[in-house]
């Protein structure tokens, strides 16, 4: 399933297991990439609206792990685990994301950062192990809306950095 609408690529063989979310962010690619890969940035914007994040451990390298808890606005805590499988600064990151190491329901995501004039087009392509797991994420956890909110929070965060930098 593509959430991009206009300009979405032709449907792939895995389209029924995918969520694709993209956004153009008015900030340089290197800054957007940095905000996505350094924990002190991530803790300031990661997650859908109303969520906060507490990092347990963070090691950004291929095979490294980010253990964290997302705190929902209703007080629910969500234990999360990410391991990076590919890092190609400043254009691409691939990762495995689940609730814990070895989670059989973990999903793969590829995040790309492409220049779009002076801005950056970021795309998060997430592939779930099954269509049922993708549908569950969409229906029960509002994964598409949450993904858009997450990228919106990233955009607000980095554009504020750019604005403050322009002010001196």
Q: Can you tell me about this structure?
A:
The protein has 168 residues and is an alpha+beta fold. The protein has four helices and seven strands, in the order βααββββββαα. It has helices spanning 29-37, 39-45, 131-141, 143-167, and strands at residues 18-25, 52-58, 65-71, 77-88, 92-98, 107-116, 119-127. Helix 1 (29-37) crosses helix 2 (39-45) and helix 1 crosses helix 4 (143-167). The protein is globular. The relative contact order is 0.22. The model is unreliable at 1-5 (pLDDT under 50).
- Specify the structural class: alpha+beta
Order of helices and strands: EHHEEEEEEHH
Strand order across the largest sheet: 1-7-6-5-4-3-2
Task: Name the quaternary structure.
Answer: single chain
* Poorly predicted runs of 5 or more residues: 1-5
Q: What's the shape?
A: globular
Tally of DSSP β-strands = 7
Which range does the strand content fall in? 35-45%
Give a quick account of the main beta sheet: strands, pairing sense, barrel closure.
7 strands, antiparallel
Count of helical regions? 4
Percentage of residues assigned to helices: 25-40%
Radius of gyration: 15 Å
The rounded distance between the terminal residues' Cα atoms is: 43 Å
Give average pLDDT, whole number. Answer: 93
């Amino acid at each position: 399933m593509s959430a991009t609408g206009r300009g979405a690529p032709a449907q792939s063989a895995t389209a029924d297991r995918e969520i694709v979310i993209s956004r153009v962010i008015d900030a340089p690619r290197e800054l957007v990439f940095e905000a996505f890969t350094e924990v002190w940035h991530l803790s300031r914007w990661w997650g859908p609206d109303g969520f906060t994040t507490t990092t347990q451990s963070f090691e950004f390298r291929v095979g490294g792990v980010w253990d964290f808890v997302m705190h929902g606005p209703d007080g629910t805590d969500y234990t999360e685990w990410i391991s990076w499988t590919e890092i190609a600064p400043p254009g691409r990151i691939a990762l495995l994301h689940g609730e814990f190491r070895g989670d059989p329901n973990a999903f793969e995501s590829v995040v790309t950062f492409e220049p779009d004039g002076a801005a950056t087009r970021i795309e998060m392509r997430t592939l779930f192990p099954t269509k049922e797991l993708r549908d569950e994420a969409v229906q029960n956890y509002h994964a598409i809306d949450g993904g858009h909110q997450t990228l919106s929070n990233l955009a607000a965060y980095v554009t504020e950095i750019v604005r403050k930098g322009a002010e001196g």
